[in-house]
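Intended use. Records like the one below are meant for learning the mapping from a protein sequence to its folded structure. Do not use them to infer anything beyond what is encoded.
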Amino acid sequence: VKALERAEVLSSTGERGRVAVVDLLRARTRRYEVVFILGLQEGTLPRRTHSSPFLDDDARRALGGRLERPDQVSRDRYLFYTACTRATRRLYLVREAATDDGAPREPSPFWEEVAAVFDEDDVARATQRRSLSSLTWGLEAAPSERERLRALTLLSVSDPDGARALADANGWERRLSRARSALQRHTRLSSEVLRHWLGSKTTFGVTELERFADCSSAWLFERVVSPKTIDAEADAMLRGSVAHSALHKFYAGLPKEIGHDRVTPENLDRARGFLRRCLDDALRGGVRLELTGLQEAELDQSLWRDLEGFIEDEARSPLELLPRRFEVGFGSDRSAPELQRGLHLGDSLYLSGKIDRIDVDPYSARGIVQDYKSGRTAHSAKQIDDELKLQIPLYMLVLRDLVGIEPLGGVYRALAGARVTRGLLHAGAADDLPGFQKNDYLAEEDFWTLVDTSRERARGYAQRIRAGDVRHDPKGGTCPTWCDLWTMCRVERP
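Structure written out for the chain above:
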């Protein structure tokens, strides 16, 4: 009894003013007012499994018993869900958007699943970002010479004279000068070989011109320099490619498979089964990377969730236009003969590209173009104008001038998240195009003005490319925080 009286008993709630740092497993039995869940980036949560050099996962499953490993994704999803329920007042989800070297990191699928529960605008308002520069040590606290130099370079942005004086006192003048000069360069292309090659171009891809409109420096490094990573990754481009392939197979084979041109509530179950087979075919034919079992499962499950929801939306849609043409390429030798020349922009310049889908009125030569977006974003009519988006307006000109169908409009179809549909629609055809956002219907004059303006913009961007006119001109005047090309184009960031 005396020993028990002398024993110290720790409070289960911990001391006030302290932060409890626990792993997900230990967090299950505790409650906190505020919880921060860290590590919501791909590869960290859910954790990647490592195959044994002696028995891989397939062999373990075949042998069964204790050798079979539990499903890591399901276990981590359970622990993540439990951790989310530990907060009584506020929950923060934290992920690393980029490494210390600026390399981007993809979000965890758990992050994506939580974001999909809420409205996209609410998610945007609640998300806070910190730039890499905010992670730089203060000059006094920097633990190494390298970190002190980084801090000094950051100081030179706000106090160049003070930074120069410190550099002189420590013998760092040359290093500081090199760091500062790395952010200053002439942007107009000077290579005669490159300028001759660009000047000889007459056909330009629509996505290429859109990227040039975003930032001509980013266009240069993405489309001309085109750096590649050493290790292949299952990135958004791969995901979009597989999704496009699956939808192409699905809609092209839909009439033969279920005897109907579009998905309806009556044939939805049969359409689901056919879509599953189309996705399996697309995954087998489209995934050329060496993916781990976890990566393959993540890709398959996320695509199936999004595409299944997509055709369910189609079944509920009041739109009576029928999907008729798919993956309509123009401006290349592989296009149909009448489409090979491409869309004329003026000044002997032509546009190339590929329309994901054309829906037509079964009783007249009228229709709309649809462009699939593998992410959550779809651009409204106002955003098409404000953000210099070219695809939908120019695709409508292709529909009219090359395909021979009168365009009633065009829409972007987001495949992920809330699967929003936005675009540019002719107000005069509103009765034939029900179910879209009212702000996306434009009067005839405004409709065609935006279409013609997009052609003029495309021609201007093509002329600048031919002239080698590359600038530091990110749209909006500042580089977006997610852009990982700044180390190559050397644009100074705040």
